[in-house]
Amino acid sequence: MQSIKGFARSKKWSSLDVKISNAGPSDIRRATQKRSLFTDKRQNGTVLVIAGSSQYHGAPSLASTAVENMLAALRVGGGYASAFVPRSILKIARIQSPGVIIHSAGRDTIEFSRGVRESIDHANAVVVGMGIGRKLSALRQTARIMDYAFSHNKKTVVDADAIYALQYTKVRMNKNVVITPQAREFFSLSGKEPDEKDLRQKVRYAVGLSRVLKAVVVLKGHESVITDGRIAKISRSRSSALATMGTGDILSGIISGYAATGAGMFDAAVAGTYLHSRIGDRLWRRMGNHIIATDVVNEIPLILKSYDKNSR
What we know:
Blueprint: E1 19-22, H1 25-31, E2 35-36, E3 46-50, H2 58-73, E4 80-85, H3 90-96, E5 101-104, H4 114-122, E6 125-128, H5 136-151, E7 156-158, H6 161-165, E8 177-179, H7 183-190, H8 199-213, E9 216-219, E10 223-227, E11 231-236, H9 247-260, H10 265-287, H11 293-304, E12 310-311
Parallel strand pairs: 1-11, 2-12, 3-4, 3-6, 4-5, 6-7, 7-8, 8-9
Antiparallel strand pairs: 9-10, 10-11
C-alpha cells in the first residue's frame, strides 16, 4: 500500500504533539445517539460484516451477534445486521447467527461479488476481516472489498486478517476508516513493534500510523490507544480476561454498531474500546480468567441500558 511505504523512516514516528486523555463514560455518552419512538430497524443503522473462510467460521457470527445484541436491544448501533461469508461455511454461520441475515460470496474464501458491492452501498457501517485467513487469494479479494468501501467513503472497521490485506489496497484510507491492530498486526503494517509496557511509545507509534494512513487507529492491548492523529485516548483494562480468541471480533462489532447509528469513527472507536474494557473487567470479577466471546456479547446491554436516549 503506497501510503505506508517508507513509514519506518518517517519523522512522524517521533512526534507526540497530540492531546492525550483517558477514555471514560463520557465517551459512551458522546457516541450514543437518540432513538425515536417512530423509527424502524433500518433507520437505526445497518451493519454489514464481511468475514470468514473454510478455516474459521466462528468469528463472523460473533461479530454479527455483538452488533445485533447491542443495537437491537438498546440503541447503540444498527438495528439491522447482515453478513457475507464463503459458501463453504454458509450453513453453519446461519445456524450460529439466527438473528441476522447471512449471504455467501466465494466458495472457501470471501470474494468481492456484486452482492457484496450492493450490500456495502446500503450499509451504514462495514466491518471486515475476522477469520478470512491469509491465503493470497483471500487477501487480494479483501483488498478489493476495502478499496470499494474506502472509495465510497463508507464507515469501515478493518480488523484481524484484513489488516494484512491492506498491503494490496490501491485506495487511500480516510477519517471514516478504523483499523484495530494488536502488536503483531501493527508490525506487519509499519515495521514497528510496540512495547506493551511502554505507553509513551505506543502512543507515538499509533499517532504516527494514524497520521500517515489518515485513518483512526486502535492499537489494542492492556492499555489500548485510540487516535485520529490529533487526539489520543487511553483505555485501560484491569485484567487480562479478554486475552482470548474471539473477543477482539466483538470489539469490531461494537465499534461498527456505534458508527452505524451516526457516531463519528473516532468517537465510535473510543466508546467501543472503553465499553469493551469495562465489560472485561466486570466479567473478570465474576468469572476470573475463564471468559469466552459470547460472555462479552451477553454483558453489553447490562452496561449500556443506563446510557439509552429516547425521543419522540
